Amino acid sequence: MDSVLLEKVEKSNIDYLIVVLTDIFGAEKGLEFPVRSLDNIDQIGIDGSSVGFEPTKHSDLTLTPDPNTFIVLPWNRRIGRVLCDVKKVDGQDLDACPRTILKQQIDSLKASEFRYLCRPELELYLVEEDCPADDAHYLDLEPIDQFAPLRRIMIDRALELGIPIKYGHHECGPGQIEIEFLYDDPLRAADNTQIFKFLARYISWDEESLIATFMPKPFSGEAGNGLHIHQRLMKDQKSVFTTDDGELSDLCLHFIGGLLEHAPAMTAITCPTVNSFRRMIVGHEAPVYLTWGVANRTALIRIPGYEKEVRIEYRGADGSANIYLLLSVLIASGLDGIKRKIEPPDQVTIDIDSLSNKRRREMGIELLPSNLSEALNALDEDKFMRTVLGEDLLEVFLREKHKEWSEFQAIEKGAIDVTKWEFNRYLRYG
Length: 430
Known about the structure:
Blueprint: H1 3-12, E1 16-22, E2 28-34, E3 44-47, E4 60-65, E5 71-72, E6 79-88, H2 98-111, E7 115-128, E8 131-132, H3 148-160, E9 165-170, E10 176-181, H4 186-208, E11 211-213, E12 227-235, E13 238-239, H5 250-270, H6 276-279, E14 292-294, E15 301-303, E16 312-314, H7 323-340, H8 357-362, H9 372-381, H10 383-389, H11 391-413, H12 418-426
Parallel strand pairs: 1-6, 14-15
Antiparallel strand pairs: 1-2, 3-4, 4-6, 5-6, 7-8, 7-10, 7-11, 7-12, 9-10, 12-13, 12-16, 15-16
């Protein structure tokens, strides 16, 4: 066990340490150690096949805790928690580990002398049995927003753990809230997103017996749960997305060009479930077209129009995405755009949803994949994305997601309620 981690554990006076990994699909798994046993532990071994990383014949893997992610649970100070990288038994990186894939993209940023900063926006529903927990809507305040105190507890706990929160508020859907983070480096942003998801689920159940779900579309006709990512690219402490005159730089346009070129393939990562495509419908500010624009919330990529320094908001991801893979493909696609000087199409400044199909065709506006199967095929065909994610991860990801699609089709053709199937499958783990 790492000496730095052991020192932190000793100073914290905890009794148990949970070591946590993120699997290929974004779910957290973990082992719980009594602290008195830690001195006797050299390596932490797991069955990689049981968490979906490796075939059985290569199933022995190890976990390497990152001491920088060690926390003590504010609601139970007997318990500590630390995030891990998954490695092979010889200590080499496991190519299919999502956290390792993100680190590889961070290394690419360093080689390009860029610093990438991002700010996730997490949306979630509070659910009581199978219904939204309240009747409030966008920016409603107490007493209509009856679970505002619960949201404050979430934010308080996140701040105690060093997670930089910008604000929280009630979102458009009944029982829906949004939490916005402050800008951070991508690895910390991804780690903090995972930690916040965990604490939101725990606190909601512990305080109010509610389920907190990041499921993309838990309720038909209501807003979906997005995971928008705001992005800035820096060099020498200065944004490279903005010219001295405050305009969009060529680097910014090329970054957007890369995002748009790889967006069809990225959709399998940003929207990785059958339920994801319930969210991607016209009229709910969930983008379905390959477009970008300043101050245009119907576009896939939005440049906020009220700030002096240009930033890029990618609006195509939802709450079921694996945050490590999501940030990896965004970084890689943007850098590919810069490297190849990919020019984006003309920006769209009007409401894309209001246009006729004929008008969209005339403007050259193309659709994103419309279901999980189309998204998986686009990912499989994008050679660049294959180099980013690696063959080992893609083999597992594509296989299991094609199974999900096949199961959905079989259920859709049968007598079982499809909505109920999705609700049961994604509610707690979306």
